[in-house]
Design goal:
By secondary structure, the protein is of the alpha/beta class. It has helices at residues 17-37, 50-54, 64-71, 89-95, 112-125, 141-151, 155-168, 180-188, 207-212, 224-237, 252-265, 295-308, 329-341, 357-369, 387-392, 403-422, 435-441; strands spanning 4-10, 41-48, 79-83, 99-101, 129-131, 172-176, 190-193, 196-199, 202-205, 242-245, 269-273, 275-276, 291-292, 315-320, 346-349, 375-377, 397-400. The chain has 17 helices and 17 strands.
Length: 446
């Protein structure tokens, strides 16, 4: 006889008494069924996968395997299965549960659609009913998340976040940050679309904006140590992963030390571009002298970096400059496959065209031969295409590479000129955050 199933779905990241209350009720229901019908009553826990969770909010602190380990040892739970989407439908159809149990807090708000689908599916199958115990007041995952965020994140947990995110959702949206305050803005800003929270997934440490914010040209003139200081300041107040723009990576012999330093700091990935000689910003293209590195030489640098890294999660991403330097698609593709063969964990294809056409053409040809390797793009000049559209074309990570610095530059210039023009600050006050706001912006100021 098939067991009589009581189904509960959870992310089960930070387990609290509210979860235990639901599981106890599910256990009681299963035991009562068993006593009444003489058939085993089974509590099946549908554990939301990282992908399911990332479809509506930030990734859980623990990955699926870790959460599985915790939840499968709770005595109320008989069996744990994955629930791969927010919707319960597939698992309900497969299990035909007698009861589905969920706290009554989902009657309104973002989860109400999921709830309705549970009711409709149970009704259609005629197998069971939805039980909705009172929500446990006084404790919530949201509050625990806020508390955990205030404590911070460990170096390793942050480092491994990028790979987890790439596996869980497409595309990731990454925002340039050049200081702790710009990172705080990038980390904490969000919008809500269809009940889902849309926010940036991580940070880009840009060579262009790290140089510009120090008043230096983007020619590898700012030392790693100086840039790492900024990253440490960013990491002190945030919890999202960071991708580091290492320009050419410098000499192979130096690159291996950079990899170690970045890893030690908790950076998730480094991108190195296949140029040699004095590096100039890619968006200048052939207007300035720029030389692409020999394929084999660049492959050696990738291999040396891979051998130097200590963790398995750190990513070395090879950036292809063929389209920037008008060498054509063939060259770009040839390099992509050679770099992946050399051990690159991903590629970045760059372009300075006004339209995304050449990047999309590259993606099409690349994805025919390689469906897995993560691809990163930086749509600074081809800015009409949305991240969603790039994701649909097979791009995994979209980097908005310089926008926060560019925005602050314009705002600051307007304000300094305004003060000079009016010889006082009254007229530009509306362009500035109020002193009261700035005093309450950072916890601990007051
Ligand atoms: C950067 O942000 O420094 C980059 C991207 O490398 S780009 O400026 O487009 O070359
Ligand atoms: Mg750069």
């Amino acid at each position: 006889m098939k067991p009589l199933v009581v189904y509960v779905a959870m992310a089960a990241d930070l387990i609290h008494p509210g979860h235990i209350n639901i599981l106890k009720i599910a256990r009681e229901l299963a035991d009562t069924l068993e006593a009444k019908e003489g058939v085993k009553g089974e509590v099946v826990l549908g554990l939301l996968t990282d992908k399911a969770i990332a479809s509506y909010k930030r990734l859980p602190y623990m990955n699926y395997t870790q959460r599985y380990e915790v939840i499968s040892h709770l005595k109320e739970v008989d069996r744990v299965i994955p629930q791969d989407s927010l919707s319960y439908e597939n698992n309900i159809r497969a299990l035909q549960p007698r009861y589905v149990v969920h706290g009554d807090d989902w009657k309104s708000g973002a989860q109400s659609k999921t709830r309705q689908n549970v009711i409709d599916t149970l009704h259609e199958l005629g197998c069971g009913e939805l039980i909705e115990p009172n929500y446990t007041v006084g404790i919530s995952s949201t509050q625990l998340n806020l508390d955990a965020r205030a404590i911070g994140i460990s170096t390793n947990a942050r480092l491994s976040l990028l790979r987890r995110l790439i596996n869980a959702k497409t595309p990731l949206r990454i925002c340039e940050t050049h200081s702790a305050i710009s990172a705080l803005i990038a980390q904490n800003s969000f919008i809500e679309v269809d009940g889902k929270k849309l926010e940036f997934d991580g940070f880009w440490s840009s060579s262009l904006t790290d140089s510009t914010s120090r008043g230096k040209p983007d020619i590898e003139a700012v030392e790693l140590t100086s840039r790492l200081n900024t990253i440490n300041e960013i990491f002190e107040v945030t919890s999202k992963p960071l991708i580091y723009d290492a320009d050419t990576g410098g000499k192979l012999e130096h690159f291996v030390f950079s990899v170690r330093s970045l890893e030690r700091t908790g950076v998730s990935a480094v991108i190195i571009e296949d140029k040699t000689g004095l590096k100039k910003n890619s968006l200048l293209g052939n207007e300035v002298e720029q030389t692409q590195e020999d394929i084999e030489v660049f492959c050696e640098k990738i291999k040396a970096g891979k051998n130097a890294q200590i963790t398995s999660e750190f990513m070395i991403i090879a950036r292809i400059e063929s389209l920037i330097l008008e060498k054509g698609q063939e060259d770009a593709l040839k390099r992509a496959f050679a770099y992946i063969e050399a051990g690159a964990d991903g590629i970045m294809i760059h372009s300075r065209q006004k339209t995304p056409n050449e990047v999309l053409a590259f993606m099409k040809a690349f994805r025919i031969r390689d469906s897995k390797t993560p691809v990163i793009v930086v749509p600074t000049s081809f800015n009409e295409i949305t991240a969603k559209e790039l994701g649909e074309a097979g791009v995994n990570v979209v980097i908005y590479a310089n926008h926060l610095l560019r925005a602050s530059f314009i705002a600051m210039k307007e304000v300094v000129e305004g003060i000079l023009r009016y010889d006082r600050s009254k007229e530009i006050e509306t362009k500035c955050m109020s002193v009261k706001e700035i005093l309450s912006l950072i916890p601990g100021t007051i």
